[in-house]
Design brief:
The chain has 126 residues and is α+β, with helices and mostly antiparallel strands. The chain has a single domain, classed as Alpha-Beta Plaits, CATH 3.30.70. The protein has four helices and four strands, in the order E-H-H-E-E-H-E-H. The chain has a four-stranded antiparallel β-sheet, covered by helices on one side. The protein is globular.
Amino acid sequence: MDKLSKLRIDIISIVLKNTKMFFSNRAPYQYTVIEEVITPNNRYAVIADTGVPDGFILVLPVHNEGDREELEERFRAIKGMRLTSMIVSNVMTGGLCIRRFDNMYAKQYTDLVETHKLASEKPIKY
């Protein structure tokens, strides 16, 4: 299998400072999860919850300069969280599973459609 072209891997760490405030206006974050991007893979390679401190991390393959910065700008509208970003310069061993997944099958997609009464496409039952 050919390697996907990517510029680098970046990490965005989000710490929830006020969980109630974050959950009441988290739609800009949810949109980035289900939004289709014009790249050979999904926007995020990994989305992982963190327990202490309460929050999550996003691992994203960056194809174009400014991709991470654009996301950070969109996230700044969300109240109740602190955002930190990092650039991965080297991996000691192994690699990330960079793939393409149809977001219509994701839990975030159905939650966002139901919560915000968005028009949705019907997923294909395989």
